[in-house]
Amino acid sequence: MRTYRLLLRSGPAVAAAAVLPLALTAQPAAAVSGISVSTTGSTVSVVTSACTQINGSWGTAALLGSGQASFSQGRQVALSGTTVSQSAAWSGVSPGTYTVVVMCSNGTTAGTQSVIVSAPSTPTISATATASPSRGVMGGLGGAARDVGPVTMGVGGALVGVGVIAAAWFLRRRAKPYRL
Fold first, then answer.
1. Angle formed at CA 39 by CA 35 and CA 42, multiple of 5 degrees
2. Residue 26 in this model has a pLDDT that exceeds 90
């Protein structure tokens, strides 16, 4: 009875403690707008969640160069994705500063962001020659990289035989302690 009352009294406090972290981390739905632009080499990509699908279209994204001022002058790509996330990408973009603009299908601007595409670094390739074992590692023969002779095999077999005989003698003597 005493345990039941204790649980009844502490129940609301435990429930409030469980819900509090969720309430503090939750963000309002209006804060999920804008765009996120990233570059990888000569590819520029944009991701947004602000657009809604109208007549099968999410909207269009444009990549504007330094001499371009309006949305229609840029390289345009249709957005693709789901209700959670829409994206577009441009490949083969030369180094420079660009502006990415996303227009949703309802005519609103989801966001504008500048991005810098840097020149790809040329990788340095260096080759060094190393000697490799002629036959490699022989996994089935103990991992040795060389053959063993008949003397080594004979000594190993003799050691194994002596071990088996010693183990049998020990177990027999242990089973019958009155014998010597």
1. 135
2. no
- How many helices (H) and strands (E) would you count in the chain? 2, 8
Contact between 59 and 47 under an 8 Å Cβ cutoff? The reply is: no
Q: Helix, strand, coil: what percent of the chain each, to 5?
A: 35, 25, 40
Above 90 in pLDDT, residue 89?
A: yes
Q: Which residue has the tokens 């309002």?
A: 28
Nearest CA among 118, 86, 88 for reference residue 100: 88
More confidently predicted of 59 and 69: 59
pLDDT of residue 148: 75
The rounded distance, in Å, linking the Cα atoms of 115 and 160 is 72
d(Cα 49, Cα 87) in Å, to the nearest integer? Answer: 9
**Given pLDDT bands bounded at 50, 70 and 90, which one contains residue 133?**
low
Rounded average pLDDT over 55-66: 91
| Three-state DSSP string of 152-176 | HHHHHHHHHHHHHHHHHHHHHHHHC
The encoded tokens of residue 180 equal: 């010597």
List the end-to-end C-alpha distance of the chain, in Å, as a whole number: 70
Quote the tokens at residue 47. 């991701």
